[in-house]
Amino acid sequence: MSATALNRLLAPTTLAGLANLELVARTAVEGFLTGLHRSPHYGFSQEFKEYRAYVEGDDPRFVDWNVYARTERTYIRRYEGETNTRLMILLDASASMDYSSGGVSKLQYGKFLAAALAYLAARQHDPVGLIVFDEQIRQFRPATSRAGSLQSMIHTIDGVTAGRGTNLEDCFRSFGEHLKRRGLVAVISDLYCDPTAMSKAVQPLAYHGHDIMLFQLLDPRELKPDWRESVLLEDVETHKTLNVAPEYLAGEYRDRLDSHLASLRKAAADVGAHQLLIPTDEPLDRALRRYLLFREGRS
Amino acid sequence: MFLAPLFLVGLLAIGVPIWLHRVARANPTQHPFASLMFLEASETQRTAKRTLRYWLLLALRILFLIALVLAFAGPLLTERAIPGSNANARLHAIVLDTSLSMQHGDRWKRALDEADAVLKSLGSADRVLIATAEGRRVAVVESSTPASAAGTVRGTLRALKPGIERLDYGLAMSTADNWLGSPRPPVVLHLISDLQQSAAPLRFADLEPPAQTQLVLHDVGNAAAENVFIQGAQLTTVDTRSLEVTVRGMAAKPQQRQVVLAIDGKEYGRRGIELPAGSVASPDSTVETEGGGDPGPDLGTQAAAATPSAKVLFSDLKLSAGSHRIEVSLEPTDALPQDDHFYAVLEHADPKALLIAPDPRADDVSYFASAIGSLAAPTLNVEERTTDAIGTGALTGFSLMVVADVGALSDIQAKRIKEYVAAGGSVLATLGTRTSIEPGALLEGWRISEPQQTVAAVGEIATTHPVLRDAGDWHSVRFFRHRAVQVGDGDKKLIEYEDGTPLLIERTIGAGHMLVLTAPVEREWNDLAIHPLFVRFIAEAARYLVRGDASAASTTVGSVVLTGLTAAGGGQIFDPRGERVLGLAQTAAADRLIPDQTGFYEIRGNDGVRWVAVNVDARESDLTPLPASFVQRWRAMQVRNSGPNVAPVAAVTAADAKPRSLGPAVLWLAAVLLLAELLLANRYLAIRRETPK
User: Hey, is the C-beta of A244 within 8 angstroms of any chain B C-beta?
Assistant: First the structure.
């Protein structure tokens, strides 16, 4: 099976046709990994290890003292496959996430992504946890790598439905109570919030040692509204309506959105987080690839 | 100008698309969106292109509505609206005489040639108008048309034919202001006619053409024209059984004709007639009139008097009572055959009188019988019966019934006579010695006193009554006895004694009349019987009561005939060709008829069938032309009116031109606009579906 064909299999619309979310996750991840195997840059093996000379600043805990005893030289010993990373998935289930311009909704895409990340982490024996939130935290599953927990988690993800509005800042403040141990935090949201406020909300997590990934999901029509006539747009969360001209959508709106995205990227960078914009008509593999890179960098 | 300007109210409908467009702009389609965070109201931000696109659609819709409303309102394009008229343009009004006399010989052909010659002489900026003059009207058959369209005008001319009515030049001239229209450019009025003398008006001033009008007379008549025609036919005054036919003619040689009389469609007889020669009129032979206002003696009368005539008598006509259609014709016919026929309707009553008396040997019976028998007009055959014989034999066949003594009648007899009167019969009655206080059914409601032996004289006399118009001698009649009579409300006292007691009373019963003399014609009562006025009184009374004096009646083409039809009764009129004159909607309200054909019109109403005879006007048959001096004075009159100092009317085009309707063109425009609107709206509708690019 060629990589192109596999990518086609990973297309959100293709995944949406699958029977259950576990199958979706497995299909997405296995397909992704099969394609990944052909890459010369990235490998994935728990058996791999390396020695390198100790340099000032390395953690003395990783010095192989046996080698030092024999050679009187300090080497750092590294086992990549053994470096488990705690992954916490924060899935935004607000009403705005339920928006769709015809294909897969942002929430559905987020559920695919969350399930795929969970499956990928479970495959690496990484503990995986889940927090579903909208205006407040709706569901919390602490991170665990116990056998059978993946099915339970995917089942939980599958049952997520769109709620009401979003209060990303308050939710982030609450996350600190649930994220005691350091790990990887994957936030899946459309991030309709004030970048500065979000930066302030995320900052405590970063200070606490969490590595944060912001997967920002947007519908293609949100990125590129294509109405040719004046439309009355209704906010799916507040139900407010606004009469908008197509000229505005093609000009001012895109400028504002670009500015918002840039602010988000800057705010994320300021707190050491990574922000990734993913249109919902894009295959999952880019998100998964970024996750792996991120995880690799962390390890 | 609009044919139906009320439809312009429909322009208010323009507000509908404007309102709809506003509504459409204010109500765009609604769609859900994830967040309005980066949005703001921006309705006013419109591109010029889209604005223009909507404006184009709106404009198309408004234009379509305007065109539709205008199409219904019927805009008219008048000549006034056409710019570029020439100040030197003239309106040449060609008036063709289409009276009967124009059918003589080749007069009509010459008239058309003259009209054609006028058309050829028109300038490029001139306009032409064609009208026909006949009877009481001038009809514009081709309204003001550019000279360049002479072909159309010639086509119109070729379709014209002369009629059978009479033309009066005065009528044509005095109404010219109306049929020429106003405002108008200077007019050259070409009157193409045979300039018949009998067409001259009674007042010379009526010939004056309108201001700023130049009159050009085109004479197409022939001074040496010959014509023989029937002047009329009527019953003689002395004998209602004789018909006298008057034939007139103008010919250079003696003319022989056969006069054929047909009664009710069957030839009754024919007589030969010879008209003397030498009566062909010369233009200068008639008397010239004096003064500008009145031509003096009637030119037509003079001409008629100068025309030789001959009379033919058809005597001893055996006609039954009732209406008879009489047609008199000349054989052979001449160049004007329409006037060689004459039609008349003869009303002929049965001239019989019934004299009823109790004693046939009485004096009054002799007096009545002698007086009635001596009448010449009407001629009455007297039949005498006793009162006892009234029961046998019909009464309806008598035109007059004379009852010598009403008191001698039994109740049954009185009722029979009363029924006879009510059905339209006439009775002359006296109150004799046998008349009682209650006179019975015939004089119901009267109170009659006993005779008084006092001498009386006549007092009041109703001299306006037809019976008593020449009743001067009644005052010399001596009355030795008389009786007081109280009459009913509807009875009229025609003669009264000096004391107010009625002597002669008219009583109406149903459709009939009675004249009642309250004194018998007896020597013991009065000396009326031996008085000279007695026979005259009996004659006048008989003529009045019979009323069916035989007469021959007819009318002329174009005159108004009272049909007697009423809205309640309805009816139908058939023309001489047997075709219905009245449409379905007119049958209930056609109390007048203007005949346009010669012959017999049949009028069928509630009262039965009535005939109306229609002839051509005999004045049209007199082809004597107008005297040259008369024509000269006429021309001088119009020259005075439109003299050289009269400035031409400034560039005003002939507004009397028939307006052209723009309705069909506007309707086509509306259809095109509708199509464009549909296409454009359909295109926009596709956009409004909001399908993604």
Answer: yes
User: From CA B45, how far away is CA B37, in angstroms rounded?
Assistant: 19
Distance of alpha carbon A187 from alpha carbon A184, whole angstroms:
10
Label residue B237 by pLDDT band (50, 70, 90).
low
B566 phi and psi angles, rounded to 5 deg? -120, 160
Is-contact B197 B624, C-beta < 8 A? yes
Nearest CA in chain A to B684: A229
CB atoms within 10 A of CB B369: 18
Percent of chain B with pLDDT over 90: 6
pLDDT at residue B349 above 80? no
Query: Residue B693: its chain A contacts at CB < 8 A?
Result: 226, 228
- Beta-bridged to residue B244, according to DSSP, are B234, B313
Residue of A nearest to B692 (CA): A226
Q: Do B687 and A96 count as a contact with CB atoms less than 8 A apart?
A: no
Asked if B76 and B2 touch (Cβ cutoff 8 Å), the reply is yes
What is the ipTM for the molecules in this complex? 0.74
CB contact (8 A) between residue B30 and residue A247: no
User: How close does chain A come to B38, measured CA to CA in Å?
Assistant: 6
Per-residue H/E/C for B73-104: HCEEECHHHCCCCCCCCCEEEEEEECCHHHHC
Contact B215, B240 (CB under 8 A): no
A243/B41 Cβ within 8 A: yes
Check if B36 contacts A (Cβ < 8 Å): yes
B12 CA to chain A: closest CA distance, Å? Answer: 29
DSSP B459: E
Are B343 and B614 spatial neighbours (Cβ–Cβ below 8 Å)? yes
- The segments of chain A whose pLDDT lies below 70 read 1-49, 78-84, 294-299
Which chain A residues contact residue B47 at CB under 8 A? 247
A223: contact with B, CB 8 A cutoff: no
The pTM for the full model equals 0.45
